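hi!! sorry for the late reply, been swamped w classes. u asked for the two structures so here they r. pasted raw, havent cleaned anything up. first the sequence of the first protein and right below it the tokens
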Amino acid sequence: MVLLKGRTFIALILLLIIFSMLIPNFLSPHNLILISKHVVLYAILGIGMTFVIVTGGIDLSVGSIVGLSAMFAGGLIYEGLVLDPFGVTIYFSIINVILLTLIFGALIGSVNGFMITKFNVPPFIATLGMLYVARGFALLRSEGSTFPNLSGTAEHGNTGFSILGSGTVLGLPLSIWIMVLIGVIAAYIFKKTPFGWHIFAVGGNEKAADISGVRVNKVKLLVYMVSGLCAAMVGLIVASQLGAAHPATGETWELNAIAATVLGGTSLAGGRGSIGGTIMGAFVIGVLSDGMVMMGVSEFWQMVITGGVIVLAVIVDQFQGRLQHKMALEQRV
């Protein structure tokens, strides 16, 4: 049982050992930092996804929210907020752009939560629909083109956006520290707050949670808002790293977020999961992906191998769930 719970950590160590033997300097500080910068994106998405999946839901829209949030922020920096009726264009400081984008992402998540809680739309369908809606709006925002230069101007007081994606603190990229901060906050919420306990209660047994006084619909609404906020944060980081915003940003990233969450031990049936496990799962995907690229593995084989790893993770998760259920029954007897 201990091996099952620590499977993600074991898998990560094995991958690091294998790639370090096959690829020179794979474990060099420079390469590990580069891998971590890639992992950050999937880890933050995965943290938001963990909130959702622990309640027994799913969020297929996060990749599209990444793209739409990047375009939202890119538009505010590149064009400003144009108020045609008044003939005025408002430019926001970068801090305000970041805050507005995070609020925007949370609002999109709230739409998902509203459809699921008020209209009883299955999470798969509600978020699948939002996947297309958000991606469509991202394309409409600039007619499919890119906001190319997000460095801002001193005249408009909106310079400094690049720091988010390329800045460093104590020798590490700022984006890694953001991942750590979000991870610590999320883990604290999960373990130390009533909201976190309610998330597990809803995922474990929704009816029992409702009877015990948990406001199930409020919990569901909030977890989708958290997921949308995390997706918006990723959109900001990507746009900052590229110095540009493209409407196709984040395509299929929802699959990597789900994969990181499942690999980290979060049950697709709900009621079980951890933030640390999800971050570890994101590192497994990142190390596997970057390692295969450095080895020159065909992109097609990369898809096959990654898909196989995800399926294997789900099989192991199901086995763990049945084993825990069996052990619980034996203890009762």
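now the second protein. again sequence first, tokens right under
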Amino acid sequence: MLHGFQPGRAVAGLAALAATLLFAGDAAGSWSTPWFVVFPVVFGGLALAAGAGLTHYTLRRRLAMSASREGAAAPASTSGSQAIR
């Protein structure tokens, strides 16, 4: 099943990937990462993901509402010449 782009999930995934890369570099000995760094990285990423998701939802909803208002006018022919039999 094909889904639309969801920026909140993308941001959350990038935050988890960043935390993974930080600790993978620490495990490989490339640098030293304190254990508590994971909290601001992951929770900050989740906060950014929530903001991105809310913004995307709000914009999508506004576009849907404006599109539904455009189609609310009377039909082209109301005389009954195109009545369903």
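hope this helps!! also noticed smth abt the second:
The two ends are 38 Å apart (CA to CA).
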